[in-house]
Specification:
Layout lengths: L8 H8 L7 H7 L4 E5 L2 E4 L4 E4 L2 H4 L8 H13 L12 H13 L6 E5 L2 H18 L7 E5 L8 H6 L16 E4 L14 H19 L4 E6 L15 H11 L3 E5 L13 H5 L5 E4 L11 E5 L1 H10 L16 H16 L2 H21 L4 E7 L2 E6 L14 H12 L2 E2 L1 E3 L2 E4 L7 H22 L1
Parallel strand pairs: 3-13, 5-6, 5-7, 7-8, 8-9
Antiparallel strand pairs: 1-2, 2-3, 4-10, 9-10, 11-12, 12-15, 14-15
Helix pairs in contact: 4-12, 5-12, 6-11, 8-9, 13-15, 14-15
The structure holds pyridoxal-5'-phosphate (PLP).
Family: Belongs to the class-III pyridoxal-phosphate-dependent aminotransferase family.
Keywords: Aminotransferase, Pyridoxal phosphate, Transferase
GO molecular function: pyridoxal phosphate binding; transaminase activity
Length: 457
């Protein structure tokens, strides 16, 4: 039975609005949580209740929910030019400025920037570019993509195929053929009994190589990974993982694609997640933090060999047959440029490191007083706290996801927005969070945990 009043906004939402990543029947009973206003790291619902948004929305609003400079940048950009595109040699001026800025920040030498509007489009664009790269070199059989279990790369068909999460495949008959998944480098659950981290890493690299050899190295175009898996559970790979994996990939001529959609722009305590984990990609996709999600804009940075392959592929005067209407939109570009200026002015990397250490120390101290915290993991300002029935054996709660959902509800009661990933609680607050904000987050987290833990006893 629904408890939603007739003719209310909630009822209209249930009737007229299909939600992403939401159970339809449960939504029809519960109705929406309607957010109406933001102030720094906080948001307010339609009843006026205030929440600390410890997920930065969807791992994205790095500058919080009310940055006036971004609003002004948007207004000024709209005053100048409401729209222009990047097809057929044309471009808004501000889009050139953003491309130059991204290339200056790029760890890939002599990069170029390509713009799109979502993370999914950016990851899919990298796949097309990888196909071009190999085709231009005469290796037209190289079409397969290796992704990883528990990876997340978006919701369009190829991006979803690259996800390593069953919920992204189940309803749709995905992944598409040719999209493979190798093991997730989860240091908490991955190692076999008695296996130390170097041997775990060696096993992951060997499993990847075995897959490549079985499929045929000349059929594989690229490997894609988030430096630190976000939606898959905030998995920080063990020391040496990416160097070991990349050695295998390079040996077989396979391109390395970094999905920096969450990890980019300071989130992990370096400008790029790749730098945090020792990954050296040929291309990287970015979105979310590029504009603090104040505009749907994403980008791919591509290295010189890919650029040359694209020129070679079209050497007889054909065009690069790819592009989105809103690629390089002038308003998105202006907002992204202003976002990058703010990151520079706030010296985002040291700030994230300092706040991240404060958050980590606080979470560890909470974990030390709890009987149900099995693992506190993360980097920069991106963490997961895994709740388990028995920290000694790492045995989880049954059924998986129940206590995570309970924690989510209790956190909401306490004015804290987190994201349960099964029974791991994700925290990814806006990067502007200060010491007071971290302490408030910890206090609300602790309160929620104590309640849930008492019930679980
Ligand atoms: N890649 C990663 C790592 C993500 O977390 C996401 C979204 O959460 C995407 C890609 C897809 O981005 P979008 O939802 O903008 O298409």
């Amino acid at each position: 039975m629904s408890i939603i009043p007739p003719n209310s906004a909630d009822r209209r939402d249930v009737l007229f609005h299909l939600h992403s990543q939401t159970n339809p029947r449960l939504h029809a009973r519960r109705g929406p949580l309607v957010m109406t206003r933001g102030e720094g790291i906080h948001v307010f619902d339609s009843q006026g209740k205030r929440y600390l948004e410890a997920m930065a929305g969807l791992w994205c609003t790095s500058l919080g929910f009310s940055e006036a400079r971004l609003k002004r940048a948007a207004a000024e950009a709209y005053d100048r030019l409401g729209f222009y595109h990047t097809f057929s040699h044309k471009t808004p001026a501000v889009t050139i400025d953003l491309a130059e800025k991204l290339v200056a920040l790029s760890p890939i030498p002599e990069a170029q920037a390509y713009f799109a509007t979502s993370g999914s489009e950016a990851t899919e664009t990298m796949v097309k570019m990888a196909w071009i790269y190999h085709a231009a070199r005469g290796e037209t059989r190289r079409r397969k993509i290796i992704a990883r279990d528990r990876g997340f790369h978006g919701s369009t068909i190829v991006a979803a195929s690259m996800c390593g999460l069953p919920r992204m495949h189940r309803e749709f008959g995905l992944p598409l053929p040719g999209f493979l998944h190798t093991l997730c480098p989860d240091p908490y659950r991955g190692p076999l009994p008695g296996e130390d981290m170097p041997r775990f890493v060696a096993r992951l690299a060997a499993a990847l190589e075995a897959m490549i050899l079985e499929e045929g190295p000349d059929t594989i175009a690229a490997f894609i990974a988030e430096p630190i898996n976000a939606a898959g559970g905030v998995i920080v790979p063990p020391e040496g993982y990416f160097p070991a994996i990349e050695a295998v990939l390079r040996r077989h001529g396979i391109l390395v694609l970094a999905d920096e959609v969450v990890c980019g722009f300071g989130r992990t305590g370096n400008m790029w997640g790749s730098q945090t984990v020792g990954m050296t990609p040929d291309m990287m996709a970015m979105a979310k933090g590029i504009s603090s999600s104040y505009f749907p804009i994403s980008a791919v940075l591509l290295g010189r060999p890919i650029q040359e392959a694209m020129a070679e592929m079209n050497k007889d005067g054909e065009i690069f047959g790819h592009g989105f209407t809103n690629s390089g939109h002038p308003v998105g570009a202006a907002i992204a440029l202003e976002t990058l200026r703010i990151y520079e002015e706030m010296d985002v990397v040291p700030h994230v490191r300092a706040m991240g250490e404060r958050l980590r120390a606080g979470l560890r101290s909470i974990a030390g007083r709890s009987r149900i915290v099995g693992d506190v993991r993360g980097a920069g300002l991106m963490f997961a706290v895994e709740l388990v029935a028995d920290p000694a054996t790492r045995a989880g709660f049954e059924p998986v996801g129940r206590i995570g959902a309970r924690f989510d509800a209790e956190a909401l009661n306490n004015g804290l927005i987190i994201r349960p990933m099964g029974d791991a609680i994700a925290l990814c607050p806006p990067l502007i969070i200060d010491a007071g904000g971290v302490d408030e987050l910890l206090e609300r987290f602790d309160l929620s945990l104590r309640k849930v833990e008492a019930e679980a006893a």
